[in-house]
Amino acid sequence: MRDKHCGLVSGDDIGKVINLAGWVFRRRDHGGLIFIDLRDITGIVQVVFSPDISQGAHERAGDIKQEYVLKITGKVEKRPPETENPNIPTGTVEVLVSSFEILNTSKPLPFQLDEEEPNESLRLKYRYLDLRRPEIQKIFLARHKAYRTTRDYLVNNGFYEIETPFLTKSTPEGARDFIVPSRLNPGMFYALPQSPQLFKQILMIGGFDRYFQIVRCFRDEDLRADRQPEFTQIDIEMSFVDVDDVLAISEGLIMSLYKELKGVPADFQIPRMKYADAMELYGTDKPDLRFGLPLTDITGIFQETEFGVFRKTIEQGGIIKGLVLKGKTLSRKDLDTAVDTAKAMGAGGLIWIRKENDILQSPIVKFLKDEEKSSLSGTFDLSNGDVLFIVADSKDKANDVMGRFRLYLGERFDLIEKGVDRFLWVIDFPLLEYSEEEKRFVARHHPFTSPKESIRNFNGDYESIIARAYDLVLNGVEIGGGSIRNYRMDEQMEMFRLLNIKEEDAVEKFGFLLEALEMGAPPHGGIAFGFDRILMMFLGLESIRDVIPFPKTQKGTCLMTGAPSNIGQKQLNELRIKTVVK
Q: Does residue 113 contact residue 127 with C-beta atoms inside 8 Å?
């Protein structure tokens, strides 16, 4: 139906008669002439209806409205110099229409595609219209490029792309599964995979050496701006490797994607930081390194303190953490706002100490000894205009609150360096973490992660066990994570025992993997990257919904299709399912 795409018409076509097809993006009636911007996925080109070229076409052009679908035939000509548009690739040419056909009409749109962005509910309800907008199409063309770049890089590095099942077994060690009933096996259920973790390990045992997959994953969890119930990840697994091998391959992939999507060279080194250091300095395992404000443990300064809040915290095994905001000379209103913000983050309280006229000012200064004040000034190199913020609490609470408060200060006072990206590998994670909900230690990543040291002679100190695990962080956001796996059956069973998973339960949930580990499993490890999140961040967008063609709302609904929806009684009967209304 067409000889060329709209956005590819160029000076080389001048003098040619061509067929084009697309949508009417804009229409301008200048009396004797009617101008239309004809649009397709490649861009727009100006087409002109002139009575001097075709009286019939010009007369019928009055029927054309926005978003009508047209096929036109016309001659490509150079635009008059004063009418050229340097802002578009086709801006030096136009097509003089000799004939056209209206392939389809369009009702009036619920929002205009060439005006300001409509609200998100409208965009998602009429997603097919939203997807026509050129700025949205650019996002998904970039997504296409990212797919291609990922495949090219990994294939060129010896990886094989292999698919894994969507209908699999529920192994509830992580987020909540989406469950699928089996009609052929009444009362039995599949689960949609949260990740292909077990299958990619099986592929290593199967001898494939290097596997990857751009895979859909499913997690039934509460949603937010950077989370969806179904998402895409780049899944990688390698045999006969250790941590350095996985990180090296991963860095090459990330740099390839960065160069493709950002259009700038990517030959930087990604630094590494131990988990313990990240928590000590930034209060989080995904620190934003685009600004400073490191945290400092000042518990030692107050070992002999007479200030009740600090003394009680130390006696209860807690810590005292501080950070200093340099040279901002905050008002009392600013300080009160900072205190309220910290409390909203879960702090029992926030102490501030301001230095003005070479004097420390604070409601608590009168309770501090001279040597304590002197130590604070020296430790933080306090100058006039500086404000020291302090939290005293349990170690985990103090780090958590101060980590988030640091981010608040960075954003509130414009400390975050604009237009830069700071990558960081966080390594040496704890193997386990305590779950308040389950009242036991659980695997921090997943139960197949291997420890750095043998756990055969476990001494009861859960928090001291370090995992061969790693996360990639960009600007304070985790974009990928992985680990070296347990590849011997006896080591995997030790891990299950550590997690208080009984042998019969382990066999019930993971028996096929345990059996496979006894049949010549190689050392292996891998990583998974959040494909949607990488796109969101590399393209400078605010939400992963912006980079997913058909996303769900924060309530997990699709406004366009109406999913989730009721199922007819016939289907429920076939599945032996009875719904219960609470």
A: no
Q: Is 466 helix (H, G, I), strand (E, B) or coil?
A: strand
Pairing assessment for the beta strands 160-161 and 210-218 based on DSSP bridges: parallel
Torsion of CA 415, 421, 422, 424, to 10 degrees: 140
Domain positions in the chain are 6-104, 137-273+424-547, 291-416
DSSP string, 536-563: HHHTT-S-GGGGSSS---TTS--TTT--
The CA distance from 53 to 76, in Å, is 12
Task: Provide Rg for the chain, Cα atoms.
Answer: 30
What is the enclosing helix (H) or strand (E) of 509? helix 503-517
pLDDT of residue 276: 96
Alpha helices, DSSP H, located in 232-307: 243-262, 275-282
- In tens, the pLDDT along 164-216 reads 999 999 976 567 899 999 999 999 999 999 999 999 999 999 999 999 999 99
Q: How many residues does the chain have?
A: 582
Distance CA 324, CA 173 (A): 40
- Cβ atoms of 387 and 353 within 8 Å: the answer is yes
Q: What is the CATH topology of the domain spanning 6-104? A: OB fold (Dihydrolipoamide Acetyltransferase, E2P) (2.40.50)
Query: What pTM did the predictor assign?
Result: 0.92
On the CB side of 439, CA atoms within 13 Å amount to 0
Among the listed residues 291, 473, 271, 295, the one whose alpha carbon sits nearest the alpha carbon of residue 400: 295
Find how far residue 455's CA is from the centre of its chain.
34
- CATH number at 291-416: 3.30.1360.30
CATH 3.30.930.10 fits 137-273+424-547, yes or no: yes
* Half-sphere exposure (Cβ direction) of 497: Cα atoms closer than 13 Å: 11
Q: How far apart are CA 74 and CA 89, in angstroms?
A: 19
Q: Would you say 65 and 24 are in contact if contact means Cβ atoms under 8 Å apart?
A: yes
The 10s digit of each residue's pLDDT in 531-551 is 999 999 999 998 999 999 999
Amino acid type, 85: N
Nearest to 256 by CA among 154, 140, 149: 149
